[in-house]
């Protein structure tokens, strides 16, 4: 996952969203889907778990930590992303990470 410190001036909006989501307490990581189908494809790289359409609507797929409340974590993700995109924000919680599991352990990041 991209950290806010590693963003450059030419960062894509999807990379900025990914970094903001990664900073939300309770988020274990972004979820790219079973076959990596949830992603923004950029030249030479991709941002798994984030899709932003031409109008500015964002779809964010996350993995939350098992000990965090899912609704509150999803709401915090939605608020963080809403500050960055002009359109609607849709948050999908795809998996829950246990204490020793890396993000996406259940099938895909």
Termini Cα gap: 10 Å
Number of helices: 2
State the helicity in percent bands: 10-25%
The unreliable regions are: none
CATH class: Alpha Beta
Dominant shape: globular
What is the CATH T-level topology?
Alpha-Beta Plaits
- In CATH terms, the superfamily is Cation efflux protein, cytoplasmic domain
How many runs of DSSP E, i.e. beta strands?
6
Topology as a string of helices (H) and strands (E): HEEEEEHE
Query: What structural class is derived from the secondary structure elements?
Result: alpha+beta
Our count of domains comes out at 1
Per CATH, which architecture?
2-Layer Sandwich
User: Would you tell me the overall average pLDDT?
Assistant: 87
The fraction of residues in strands falls at: 25-35%
The largest pleated sheet is described as: 4 strands, mixed
Radius of gyration from CA coordinates: 13 Å
Organism: Jiangella alba
Protein name: Asp23 family, cell envelope-related function
Task: Please tell me about this protein's structure.
The protein contains 2 helices and 6 strands; from the N terminus they run αβββββαβ. The chain has 109 residues and is α+β, with helices and mostly antiparallel strands. It has a single domain, classed as Alpha-Beta Plaits (2-Layer Sandwich), CATH 3.30.70. Strands 1, 4, 5 and 6 form a 4-stranded mixed β-sheet that branches. Strands 2-3 form a two-stranded antiparallel ribbon. The longest helix is centred in the C-terminal third of the chain and has 13 residues, at 70-82. The N and C termini lie close together (10 Å). It comes from Jiangella alba. This is Asp23 family, cell envelope-related function.
């Amino acid at each position: 996952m991209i950290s806010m410190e590693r963003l450059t001036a030419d960062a894509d909006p999807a990379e900025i969203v990914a970094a903001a989501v990664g900073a939300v307490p309770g988020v274990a990581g972004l979820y790219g889907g079973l076959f990596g189908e949830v992603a923004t494809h950029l030249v030479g790289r991709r941002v798994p778990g984030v899709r932003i359409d031409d109008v500015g609507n964002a779809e964010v797929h996350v993995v939350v930590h098992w000990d965090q409340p899912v609704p509150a974590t999803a709401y915090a993700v939605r608020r963080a992303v809403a500050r960055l995109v002009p359109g609607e924000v849709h948050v999908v919680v795809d998996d829950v990470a246990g204490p020793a599991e890396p993000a996406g352990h259940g099938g895909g990041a």
